[in-house]
Design brief:
tRNA processing; 15 helices; mRNA processing; 394 residues; FMN; tRNA dihydrouridine synthase activity; Aldolase_TIM; alpha/beta; 8-stranded parallel beta barrel
């Protein structure tokens, strides 16, 4: 796909189209506060992620503060710029439209966050609080699309998905306890049958108050995808822990052969047995033929090579991430946190091996600078040939 598409300017709907023709899901990395920065986006893109989200950016501050713009949204000018969706937190149509106008030259699309459950966001009428304000959400996406159109961007959805100036507008939501309210919300935000207001939709099938330890609401997801999946491409966010352990089935579930990155791989028979006996993976899984894509957060943070079929994070992904960090720097403590996630057991239910032991991860977190960190990781991987980073330090 990289050889045939201009990835920096590719329209997200084009990516959905390519994935569908390849009879697979579109693969996306979720917006994660602090973690969905450029170096991480470039890393997951190198391992099969089609579409990357930025962390949620507050539109009001982004519009008014140059320092907020410099710190919240970083792009690549030398090397791969993954197809990127900029996610905003907003509750005023003009604020979202203005912020979208600022970032449109540098991204593939704009996403409105209607799913963040954190109390501070909801207190400001942001995130999941917007699930109670469907008309406002509709007005925000309509005004933003009109602003982008006036700026000269191609925003006619499928009609413009081959245009280098094509840009998308989407919304990420949670669900209500009463699913009828969610259906009303989506119906309002989608707008008329002939000309919907958004290009695609991401559904996190948990309510605002549902903890992440509770499995997603598969019944709600099945109803919503069957109701709206013919009108708009739908991504699911939540419980995407491993491609061979999804809690649903689909004709698009083209699972790569699992790549074991440890010396004690879990056999296919063991994996199947685990699947059939796990409460979160019942024998009869719902079939979701109208679901278009997957979005992962916690699992891809622990294993950036998730969509490439790796059951756990390989050393090569650690090397890729560090090479990206050298060129797109992150605060050192954030680098350590990324690596502590990548070197720990991942989210796959079948393979809990780790690159480093708990004691080794503690020692890694004690490193005080990049040179010591790279030396430490080179030593730990030495039996495999090192990380290949020493040459970058001359």
């Amino acid at each position: 796909m990289e050889n045939t598409l201009d990835m920096e300017h590719v329209h997200p709907l084009k990516l959905f189209d390519v994935a569908r023709k390849e009879r697979r899901f579109l693969y996306a990395s979720a917006p994660m506060v602090r973690y969905s920065k450029l170096a991480f986006r470039q890393t997951v893109f190198a391992y099969g992620t089609d579409l990357c989200w930025t962390p949620m950016i507050l539109a009001k501050e982004f519009n008014r503060n140059r320092f907020a713009r410099d710190s919240d949204f970083t792009i690549s000018t030398n090397g791969p710029q993954p197809p990127t969706i900029v996610q905003f937190g907003a509750n005023v149509p003009q604020e979202l439209a203005r912020a979208s106008s600022l970032v449109a030259p540098f991204c593939s699309g704009i996403d409105l966050n209607c799913g963040c459950p954190q109390s501070w966001a909801c207190a400001e009428s942001l995130g999941a609080a917007l699930m109670e304000k469907r008309e406002l959400v509709r007005d925000m996406v309509v005004e933003t699309r009109e602003q982008l159109r006036q700026d000269g961007w191609a925003v006619e959805k499928e009609k413009d998905m081959d245009s280098p100036r094509g840009r998308s507008l989407s919304v990420k939501i949670r669900v209500h306890k009463d699913l009828r309210k969610t259906i009303d919300f989506i119906t309002t935000v989608l707008g008329p049958e002939a000309n919907r207001h958004i290009d695609f939709l991401t559904i996190h099938p948990r309510t605002r108050s549902t903890p992440s330890s509770t499995p997603i609401n598969l019944e709600a997801l099945e109803i919503l995808t069957s109701t709206f999946g013919d009108r708009v491409p739908i991504l699911v966010s939540g419980d995407v822990f491993a491609l061979n352990a999804l809690p649903f089935t689909s004709p698009l579930l083209n699972t790569p052969t699992p790549t074991n990155t440890n010396s004690n791989p879990v056999s296919t028979a063991t994996a199947a047995s685990t699947t059939s006996s796990s409460p979160s993976n019942p024998l009869v899984k719902p079939n979701l033929p109208k679901l278009s894509g997957l979005m992962s957060a916690r699992a891809i943070l622990a294993n950036p090579a998730l969509y490439a079929g790796h059951e756990t994070c390989p050393w090569e992904a650690v090397e890729t991430f560090l090479n990206k960090v050298v060129r797109s720097p992150l605060p050192f403590k954030l680098v350590l946190h990324h690596l502590s996630e990548m070197c720990a057991p991942g989210m796959s239910p079948f393979n809990k091996s780790a690159l480093l032991t708990k004691q080794e991860r503690a020692a890694m977190l004690a490193c005080s600078n990049m040179v010591d960190l790279i030396d430490f990781l080179d030593e730990k991987r030495g039996r495999g040939g090192g990380l290949g980073l020493r040459r970058d330090r001359g």
